[in-house]
TrEMBL record:
Gene Ontology biological process terms in this record: reciprocal meiotic recombination
Species name: Armillaria solidipes
InterPro entries in the record: CCNB1IP1 (IPR042448), Znf_RING (IPR001841), Znf_RING/FYVE/PHD (IPR013083), Znf_RING_CS (IPR017907)
Pfam families according to UniProt: zf-RING_5
Coiled-coil region list: 107-173
UniProt biased composition (Polar residues): 187-206
MF terms (GO), sorted A to Z: ubiquitin protein ligase activity; zinc ion binding
RING-type domain mapped to chain residues: 12-48
Protein name: RING-type domain-containing protein
Keywords recorded for this protein, A-Z: Coiled coil, Metal-binding, Zinc, Zinc-finger
UniProt signal peptide: none
Region of interest (Disordered), residue spans: 186-216
Record-linked SUPFAM superfamilies: RING/U-box
Length: 256
């Protein structure tokens, strides 16, 4: 503990190193506070004791000279000297006790504030941990949702690739069937045009009977072509059938 005495005014608490003002009620003040307090009233600001006697408030030097130490108690009886020393030691002990009590009060206040702050901190930490837990749960849910969406995207991409392959396959089959249908009228090796006579052989349309070579067929219906294609194992699509029908209708001779 610091051995320097402090001004007993709570708003001051300045360390006393040179001169001080002491009272008979065992309190001590700095010179500035004493001039301010005791000029208005002769009451101790620490304990409110009445200080009416001239020696109740005395200015003393805290570091007296050797001459002062030699002469201050000279000529006094030993009993008086011992009484003075006893009172001086009691004054010092009271100041030490008062300072200790003040420091303990400060420690208690700081402890109470620290406890209150610790409780607030614990509450904030609990709330923060709760928020963090909720956010972690939301993050986990979002990660699961993202993974599910990624899986769906991969499935859709795979399905899209499969459909694209099916589309390309169907397109190739469509082009192949279209070429077959367009080449179907030229089964005898001739290209029909206008009033040109079309000869059908039995090999082109099996199961339809032998045509008479002496009677060339100028035009034939779409049904005969379709029957011949089905007999050869060719699948007829509806829209291809329409295109084929239009092709052969245009090639028929209206005079027949």
């Amino acid at each position: 503990m610091d051995t320097d005495l402090k001004c007993n005014r709570l708003t001051c608490r300045k360390s006393l190193t040179d001169k001080a003002v002491v009272t008979t009620c065992s309190h001590i003040f700095c010179v500035d506070c004493a001039n301010e307090l005791f000029n208005a009233a002769r009451l101790c600001p620490a304990c409110e004791a009445t200080l009416t006697e001239p020696d109740d408030v005395v200015v003393c030097s805290l570091h007296p000279s050797n001459d002062y130490k030699t002469s201050v108690l000279s000529g006094l009886m030993p009993s008086i000297i011992l009484e003075i020393c006893s009172r001086a030691i009691s004054f010092w002990q009271y100041q030490i006790y008062q300072e200790s009590s003040f420091q303990q009060a400060v420690v208690r206040n700081l402890t109470d504030k620290n406890t209150q702050i610790q409780k607030q901190l614990d509450s904030v930490v609990r709330e923060a941990n709760s928020e963090i837990s909720l956010l972690n749960n939301k993050i986990a849910e979002l990660e699961r949702d993202v993974e599910l969406e990624r899986r769906k995207v991969r499935e859709l991409q795979e399905a899209s690739r499969d459909r694209d392959r099916e589309y390309q396959k169907l397109k190739a089959q469509h082009d192949k069937m279209k070429r077959k249908v367009l080449l179907a009228p030229n089964l005898s090796g001739q290209q029909p045009s206008g009033n040109e006579t079309l000869n059908l052989s039995s090999s082109s349309f099996p199961g339809q009977g032998e045509p008479n070579p002496r009677q060339p067929l100028r035009a034939f219906g779409v049904g005969a072509v379709v029957d011949g294609m089905e007999a050869n194992g060719v699948c007829i699509l509806p829209y291809l059938f329409s295109a084929t029908a239009q092709l052969f209708i245009d090639s028929e001779d209206p005079t027949c």
